[in-house]
Amino acid sequence: MRQSLIMGNWKMNGSREEGRQLAKALAEGLGDVVQQVVVCVPFIYLADIRDVLASSLIAVGAQNVADQAAGAYTGEISAAMLADTGVKYALVGHSERRSYYGDTNQSVANRFIQAQKQNIVPVLCIGETLEEREQGRTFQVVDEQLDAVIDAAGIEAFAHAVIAYEPVWAIGTGKTATDEQAQEVHHYIRQRIAGRSQAIADKLQILYGGSVKADNAKGLFAQPDIDGGLVGGASLDAKGFLQICHSV
Ligand code: 13P
Asked: What's the domain range around 12?
């Protein structure tokens, strides 16, 4: 039985005070839950939000992590720095990083490895664009994104990692994958991992991301291979995000 995981990704939104208020509302409203809840906040607010959430069950995550351990990499934030700040999870390879900031499969694999070296759980984001889906290349794209990391980090590394399937066409568009579309790809991903290790595949949390809202979360989370969600826009509203957390 896999534990559910709900992650909010605030992306580049909100002020320090707004972030603190949102975190406070989440901590107060969460109540008793069985699933793990994480909020991925802007680097500059990690310490503030960590403090607000200190006595709650909600962990803080980063939205990215450097692909190098330390050194002359101006503007980057290392995994060691994140660990030092109390970060438990880090997104790697979010589609916005891949498309706007040039993250490649190779650099994503390096980020994944750097995070794990510091005991931070990498959340490997993968998913196809609309064009790729229409060309019937969804599984091929997922294979390429996944295999680059498996080859670099080894399959055993997935015992301490999370995968987020985020079809690019569903991110911020209001177009959610149907329960069946999402389940189909999640099942495929799990089978791909099972091809290397059944035991790791059985335990691996695979999250769905892309226009998850309070009104579609239940159906998605009820699918056998969907273990939770990576929520963007809807995680900026405490009430809506709490409803999603309670949809598991
Ligand atoms: P939305 O929930 O806003 O579609 O964003 C999804 C996402 O990119 C989460 O990382």
From this structure: 5-246
Distance 212 CA to ligand 1 centre (A): 7
The span from the CA of 106 to the CA of 114, in Å, is 12
Q: What is the mean pLDDT of residues 74-100?
A: 98
Q: What are the respective helix, strand and coil percentages of the chain, to the nearest 5?
A: 50, 15, 35
Predicted confidence at residue 33, as pLDDT, reads 76
| Catalytic hit among 96, 128, 132, 166 | 166
Residue 174 sits in a domain whose CATH number is 3.20.20.70
* Span from the CA of 209 to the centroid of ligand 1 (angstroms): 6
**Which residue's structure tokens are 């080894």?**
154
Q: What is the mean pLDDT of residues 97-109?
A: 98
Contacts of 42 (CB under 8 A, 6+ apart): 10, 12, 14, 19, 63
In short, whether 209's Cβ falls inside 6 Å of ligand 1 is: yes
Q: Is the CB of 231 under 6 A from ligand 1?
A: yes
Count of domains observed in the chain: 1
Mean pLDDT, residues 209-215: 96
Helices (H), 138-225: 138-153, 179-194, 198-203, 214-221
Q: What secondary structure letter does DSSP report for 166?
A: -
Please report which helix (H) or strand (E) contains residue 100, including its range: helix 95-100
